[in-house]
Amino acid sequence: MRRLLYTFLLVPSCLFSQQFQKVDFKTLNATLALDAAHKKISGHVTYTFEVLSTIDTIRIDAKNMAFSNLKINNTVAEFKNSGKELQLYKGFKKGKNTLMFDYEATPKQTLYFIGEKDHLQIWTQGQGKYTSHWLPSFDDVNEKVVFGLSISYDKDFDVLSNGKLKNMSDNGTQKLWEYQMDKPMSSYLAMLAIGKFAKQTETAASGTPLEMYLSKEDAPKFEYTYKYSKAIFDFFEKEIGFKYPWGIYRQVPVRDFLYGGMENTTSTIFSQDYVVDEIGFNDRNYINVNAHELAHQWFGDVITATSGKHHWLQEGFATYYALLAEKELFGEDHFNWELYEIAERLQQAAKTDTIPLLNEKASSLTFYQKGAWALHVLRENIGAKNFNKAVKKYLEKYAFKNVNTANFLAEINAVSNYDTKKFQEVWLEKPGFEVTEALGILKKNKFIQQYLNVLSMADKPLVEKQSFFEETIQSDAYYPVREEVLFQLQSVDFSEKEAIVKQAMLSKDIKVRQAVAKTLNKFPESFRPDFETFLDDKSYVTREITLNVLWSQFPDDRTKYLDKSRNWVGMNDKNLRILWLTMALATKDFEPENKPAYYDELLSYASPDYESSIRQNAITNLLYINTNDTNVLRALVNPLTHHKWQFSKFARDKIRELVKKERYRLYFLELLPSLQDNEKAILEKLLNP
């Protein structure tokens, strides 16, 4: 799973470890119905299971659910509902059994209802042990079941789930979507996604259908959102050597998703932030997340770590194979640059992070990125051919089962004489990051050598490096080399670096030109026409930087720049539109008759009608314009209960900052009686820490 910030902890209970040895659940078939108005789910569930040896109580995880009509082997059976588990203690026998029951729940998490009417989306996020909030299932990842989910919903909406769509049937205003897996998986990988989607399908080289979805209004963005999807899929099947086993693969973005993406078996959900047009593709694209979640279909879904201690076998592999996919698409220099940047982050984090990779409490950075580096070290030392052979055997031996680190390293031992014991001690059990070994590997790449050479000149005066920098900027060196040249010149007087800057601006590389825009906050009037060309670059980020600089540096021409950018929208967070509205409001004498409408538009973006990224951007700018508007202050309260923790944290931090001043504290105190109970409880804690 690709997360923006993620710490994973999974501790299987002793009870479930014992149950796993004594009871084998085979299949789960459920017919589900969703009530969006009341944010409820209900269903009829059938489990088949085999009792292997004597057991007093069989437990199914079920958070805050109500059960009825429970039968075991077609006979009404007694049960207990602890609020966390459905407990069966009568009616089952040694050997094969069938369990049936009805249930309903109003989940407080994991099943989310976003938006209203035609813009409604319903989706799940069960990573870890949370599927049991919406579906009676198993928090223990070692309990793998063959899922079949049939979902009834409004026929005007599309419904996605795991596996192949076996049948669709209309029933008046409802439609029943019947999905079926044919191989077992852990419960945390079960999913639902409901919305009004447009769909495109490609076919992989192996014949696997690749279904790609977008909200209908985003249909023009298919090409750039899903760019290289088929190429990545075909590369993985060839590189991994183990054919994609699930029969179909689909991907769908949803609004206000909690993280970057989630590798639900056959059906990845990802963030709306990665839905991009041709220009947005150059600023933030789905390629790495796309490859990461697809790699999980093997590493995490086909084989699943037995516990959090071995979580790197999922996240480290997915991170590394995503880098290998990017290497296939963009070349060795790109691949090594990604590894270099990861190494820098790990080296910095090692100053305070003392938890090693082979530990369930390791950080997300450790699981994902140190895990990827550990695999790169292995691959470099035993050779790509041997590495691929070991990975293929590892997948074949443990397909649809659970694995630990010893299982993987045993396959490395089988193809090489590499000292895996020392490797485990140094890379998996020791905290910190092995900078020397990592740099030794990176320096095999000529581009990295060139980059490090430029980096080493940071403290030298310009006179000693000017001719070298001029040559470097004119060269075809991979963009980070030329970026570093420009970063080192940031504080140098413009007249001294003008020749280098102008040469850099001739580059067709968007990132090199963007580096110029980033590093030039002040320049003479004579250079203004050159700088203005950045307003036409195919990068929303470059345009945002440029508009900010020009608006600030040339106040007499603000109207000119506002006219130029009047119809810009930008990325998913409306970065350019919100910036434009802010500047229009802050520019004296600019269209005074329209300012109320501009303010109302900006204020509307802070409302629950929009995604959290838009709302946060709008609130930030509204606070910049006028911190005394009670409408803006009220807009800060609603996010306190938002399901997306990043947005909720933003609101809490802003309110904490504001209430240091008495007038804001009094406003929020006066607001308390009008709030919903959950909002009131959080705000009271912020006011009375």
UniProtKB/TrEMBL annotation:
It is an enzyme of class 3 (hydrolase). It comes from Flavobacterium microcysteis. The keyword NAD does not apply. GO terms for biological process: peptide catabolic process; proteolysis. It comes from the Bacteria. Belongs to the peptidase M1 family. Residues 224-427 form the Peptidase M1 membrane alanine aminopeptidase domain. GO terms for molecular function: alanyl aminopeptidase activity; metalloaminopeptidase activity; peptide binding; zinc ion binding. Residues 31-189 form the Aminopeptidase N-like N-terminal domain. Pfam families: Peptidase_M1 (PF01433), Peptidase_M1_N (PF17900). It catalyses: Release of an N-terminal amino acid, Xaa-|-Yaa- from a peptide, amide or arylamide. Xaa is preferably Ala, but may be most amino acids including Pro (slow action). When a terminal hydrophobic residue is followed by a prolyl residue, the two may be released as an intact Xaa-Pro dipeptide. This is Aminopeptidase N. GO terms for cellular component: cytoplasm; extracellular space; membrane. Its EC number is 3.4.11.2. Keywords: Aminopeptidase, Hydrolase, Metal-binding, Metalloprotease, Protease, Zinc. Its cofactor is Zn(2+).
